[in-house]
UniProtKB/TrEMBL annotation:
Coiled coil: none
Protein name according to UniProt: Carboxypeptidase
Reported function: May be involved in vascular wall and kidney homeostasis.
Keywords of the record: Carboxypeptidase, Glycoprotein, Hydrolase, Protease, Secreted, Signal
Highest taxon above the source species: Eukaryota
Organism: Vicugna pacos
Recorded name of the encoding gene: SCPEP1
Pfam family, one: Peptidase_S10
PROSITE patterns (alphabetical): CARBOXYPEPT_SER_SER (PS00131)
Leader sequence segment: 1-22
Example of a GO cellular component annotation carried by this entry: extracellular region
InterPro entries hit by this protein: AB_hydrolase_fold, Peptidase_S10, Ser_caboxypep_ser_AS
One of the GO BP terms on file: proteolysis
Length: 448
């Protein structure tokens, strides 16, 4: 067989296997180059990715890092929500985003686990049911990506994440570290950043009561009720009854909602919208998993985003199968992970730290679902030998505008662990505090 000189052999293999290989659209330089495609990560499991080359007026993309963004849920779409609602070049009205991360990094959005966003499965057995599968699927994708895009092999590669994406980023980071050491994936892996991440769900749940009470969102009776249900979740987690813990977690959220007049889990200074309250009463007849899905994934695929992705975007991308709809399989993605939700991955973070991988934890001050108190609680459980030294450090304030005295964040970092307390942000840090999120990304990737 003859290979054309500039054809990537892995690309050819994909072609031979009859798999989608993506499209390359070259645009005028100032708009930047984007590429996207599918990788079949397992039988019947097809994962969609979308890459934007950094667009910086002074620097070539090769001088800037590559950042992969992982959305939460599980079932939330990076190519949709993270891209158009948080850090990508355009917002969901297709207007340029002032605080896009593209000015300081190339961005790789991946719809994972399979079934999320434009990713799809051809068989309901192919959904991931645990973190190990999520991570091994991503290894297949990253190997295909770096083998075919050698220009990124030497560039520092960071995995940034949000919510459940943080749990996936930890698992993926550890597998990637091993793969790089073993030489199976060629890339310059530089670290993970875990944003409002679901590393130790129970530490979030047990801190909801004290957190809400301290900011006047629970009275004494409310605190007692929230604490009581949190104890039940804790008990189930301690017994290893993870599916039951998932069910009780959903119940705990309802107790919080009832006692707080419907506080928004993603930003305590706002309220759940009346529509979602109506949805909730309707959902009462549905299974607790569907209810949890409505609460935690539905908001990541609001109608405007869904119309954009299933309208102009799929038209532009051209390679989305006709009967594959953005978000169409996300309920199943979420439901299949039922036994995984409440499992902690603190030990994986420990392994990352021991292995010398740079780990950044960042959290929005106004987030309830993954509140900062809970993050600090699991951090204290780390067995990492440098933790006492990290704890002894004092934090430093950060300002987004050097001329302003308004504090935007606090940061503490020691050796390969850093923690950012992001002020006035809820769960979606880049949506709430775009300037600070961009600054943090630059700090984490050693550009400031
Ligand atoms: C940018 O970097 C790439 C990869 O190193 C190189 O091929 C390309 O020529 C560079 N472009 C410019 C404008 O310097
Ligand atoms: C797999 O699913 C996609 C998307 O729904 C569909 O277009 C394709 O025909 C399916 N392939 C097979 C072999 O069933
Ligand atoms: C990892 O963190 C250490 C300590 O903060 C820092 O010196 C180093 O540059 C970081 N490496 C990368 C690749 O970001």
């Amino acid at each position: 067989m003859e290979l054309a000189p500039r054809t990537c052999p892995e690309l050819l293999l994909l072609l031979l296997l009859g798999l989608s290989t993506g499209a390359v659209i070259d645009r005028p330089a100032e708009e930047g180059k984007e590429i996207w495609g599918y990788v079949t990560v397992r039988k019947d499991a097809h994962m969609f990715w979308w890459l934007y080359y950094a667009t910086n007026p002074c620097k070539n993309f090769s001088e800037l890092p590559l950042v992969m963004w992982l959305q939460g849920g599980p079932g939330g779409s990076s190519t949709g929500f993270g891209n158009f609602k948080e850090i990508g070049p355009l917002d969901s009205d297709l207007k340029p985003r002032r605080t896009t991360w593209l000015q300081a990094a190339s961005l790789l959005f991946v719809d994972n686990p399979v079934g999320t966003g434009f990713s799809y499965v051809n068989n309901s057995d192919a959904y991931a049911k645990d973190l190990a599968t999520v991570a091994s699927d991503m290894m297949v994708l990253l190997k295909a990506f770096f083998d075919c895009h050698k220009e990124f092999q030497m560039i520092p590669f960071y995995v940034f994440s949000e919510s459940y994406g943080g749990k996936m980023a930890a698992g993926i980071g550890l597998e990637l570290h091993k793969a790089v050491q073993q030489g199976t994936i060629q890339c310059n892996f530089a670290g993970v950043a875990l944003g409002d991440s679901w590393i130790s769900p129970i530490d979030s749940v047990v801190s909801w009561g004290p957190y809400l009470y301290s900011v006047s969102l629970l009275d004494d009776q409310g605190l007692a009720e929230v604490s009581e249900i949190a104890e039940q979740v804790l008990d189930a987690v301690n017994k290893g009854l993870y599916k039951e813990a998932t069910m009780l977690w959903g119940k705990a959220e309802m107790v919080v909602e009832k006692n707080t007049d419907g506080v928004n889990f993603y930003n305590i200074l706002t309220k759940s919208t009346p529509e979602s309250a109506a949805e909730l009463s309707f959902e009462f007849t549905q299974s607790h998993l569907v209810r949890l899905f409505q609460r935690h994934v539905r908001h990541l695929q609001e109608d405007d985003l869904s119309q954009l992705m299933n309208g102009p975007i799929r038209k532009k991308l051209k390679i989305i199968p006709e009967d594959c709809f953005w978000g169409g399989q996300s309920t199943s993605v979420f439901q299949n992970m039922e036994g995984d939700f409440m499992k902690p991955v603190v030990s994986i973070v420990d392994e990352l730290l021991e292995a010398g991988v740079n780990v950044t934890v960042y959290n929005g001050q106004l987030d309830l679902i993954v509140d900062t108190m809970g993050q600090e609680a699991w951090l204290r459980k780390l067995k990492w030998t440098e933790l006492p030294k990290f704890n002894q450090l004092r934090w430093k304030p950060l300002y987004t505008d050097p001329k302003s005295s308004e504090t935007s964040a606090f940061v503490k970092s020691y050796k390969n662990l850093a923690f950012y307390w992001i002020l006035r942000a809820g769960h979606m840090v880049p949506s709430d505090q775009g300037d600070m999120a961009l600054k943090m990304m630059r700090l984490v990737t050693r550009q400031e």
